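Section: Multi-chain targets

For targets with more than one molecule, the full set of components is provided together so that the structure can be written out for the assembly as a whole rather than chain by chain. Components appear in the order listed by the source. The example entry contains two components.
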Amino acid sequence: MSQDKLTPYILLLPIVAHIVVFWLYPFALNVYISFLYWTGLEPLYKAKFVYLENYRSLLLEDERFWTALRNMAYYALGVPVIIGLGLGLALLLNQRVRGITFFRMSTFAPYITAGVALALIWQAGLYHPFYGLFNEVLRRLGLPPQPWLRSPSQALPAILIHIVWKHLGYIALLFLAGLQQIPQDYYDAASVDGASAWDKFRYVTLPLLRPVILLVLILVTIGALQIFTEPYVMTMGGPADSTLTLVLYMYFMAFMYMNMGKAAAMVNILFAIIFALTILEIKVLRRSGAYWG
Amino acid sequence: MSKLALLLLILVIIAGGFGAYYYYYYVYLPSTIITLKVLAWGGVEMSETLKEIISGFEQEHPNIKVEIVLVPAEQREVMILSMAQSGTLPDVLHFMPYALAEYVEAGILDEPPDYVIKDIKANYPEGAIEAVSYKGKIWGYPTEFDPVCLWYNKKLFEEAGLTRPPETWEEVIKYAKNLTKYDASGNIVQEGFALFASENIAYDFLIFLQIFYSAGGKFLSDDFTRLLINSSEGVYALSLIHDMISKHRVTDVKWGATEAFRLEKAAMTLQELPWRNDLEPAMGENFTHLATYLPPKVGGKRVTIAHIYLMGVASTSEHKKEAWELVHWLNTPRREGEASPLAQYFFKIGIMPSRFSDLRANPDYINNPLHRPFFESLNFTKPIVPSLRGFAEIAGILFTMMGNVEYGKAPPKAALDEAVAKASAVLSKYYGSVALGDESSRAFKLVADWEDYVVRHGVAMKEALKMELLTMTSLLFLLHRSTL
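Its structure, encoded as tokens over all components, is:
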């Protein structure tokens, strides 16, 4: 091969090496570990090869795994909520009024604040059954205080509310960028035709915003399936596993129960779920004509 | 590539190799100061106190420097796991031995020398020695000793007309009914007995174990293949807790026992002595309203369980002899009648040591009315569970069982049966006829050898890698220039 043809490949080497070392190799190793019984303490070559035992015990015997999957589906209910609220907020922020930059930054602030700090503040300062702000407001309104994170039925919705609040600004920002791409001419033409505000939103804004909506859908869905920080900080998956997520259970399995093989199997199952969902959403994108590829 | 560039490249590679060789053999190896690393947890203040105590060892051994590797307490075992994999385990390990069996089977602990074993056998209670033993061998010094005893609020007892703490679990229920208060809607506003479900379900499991062992329960079958907690004693113990919540309504699982005690909204619970560090700062003067007593009996028998920590040496330590000297120094008195240095550290942070001479050396600490029951319970304390493989995963199953019962998702007997079945499935990997062997996968032996080589020659490798990185960058630059 001549020098000219070789150079591009050599210059690509660093990024290829990065992908191989930091993605492909760990992925392949994870797949291998999922067929082992390994505590993580001894060298890998001493681990016992157990074929599909980890997958079998997860899928057929481990109720906590299915509880975590069910909880994951529940967390995913927050997806349409955050998309709807994010779009509404973006419409509000898409105005030329004095101080709009301040409002835009304020809504984005929770997203850029450390997740652990925010989770602790909500756990100890807002959701606390005795000292929390929410219960104080309820008491002043004459309503009974709520257990929030202390109740199996309320803990997951409580965490979901926090997560929606935290990410709302970021989602609104993505929608805002999409809204600002829509040419004003379309709205002017609609006004000339006598369209109401709702008509403009339904027939101009929504169709032109579809690519952004579907992109946000993919991002938020993937995020919902990988929630870890909030249940870890606020409830450790409790009470009674009501807020346990798959990623949190993976962490427990790997680092607290020292069963790396089963944790690796969970990683692969989650990867398969996210991969399948992403493929599905891309197909929908293509069908709707909104895909940019 | 031009000949000049090629020559430069070769020179850079040779210089890099010589540099790494020189650094390793002429700078790194000749250092005669031995540095020992000690795993410790807690805040910076605790670490400073420990460092001050260890400075005494450094003065007696001028060629040894001791570094504290500080980790968060709740991340301690996770950090040990990570450090074991990365080959960065400290020389001295101090941990809760619920994973002792895994650590021994993985070979990360060094066997103590004879003088250490002799010292431990002569100076520690049987329960403490059992906690740090596996397969008939002792693996380190028992250190912190945290039995579970009854805590109660004297002021609330006086208000209810109760003049003494309860002796039996039947009395606990009777007292709790008397002490519990409700509002107009029937919600509990003062708990007769507090549980820890909303804080840390593990503490409620300790309460279950205390009742279970006092009732005469046996945790594990002799062949280690089956948990026996679904026996009549286990059903009794778990039903007692379940009934406190649903039948007698003397506790509300939505409250955490710590905050309920701080607010003086709870009359009794079972906890360890270090719990005072969570209560005293928040309660201030009201802390004097609290008292402790021996844990309640079941049918005339009283047993309690204790967290007992282990201090040992990592098998990967390059200075095992010196590390054991440090461990021995920390755990033995310097002078007759004095507490050991580690015990002096424990007394400063409100923890009880397990060595007999340490306890005798500080009669004021032992005779403090708040501490006395914990000292007396040495006579009937057992470790939480015997050391067994897979216990970390089994603990997760048992905590889930507690949560399901306390939050009304399963009745006690069904929850126990399910937990026993799942735990037995875990145990069957290690014990019994289909247990895992110690087989090897040869394919990874080469990788393991390479990893071992890298760890042992880490410093030289780091330097060599730096040189290689510089070399690669130079090569790419030269290639790019030559193609212009």
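The CA atoms of residues 132 and 234 of chain A lie 14 Å apart.
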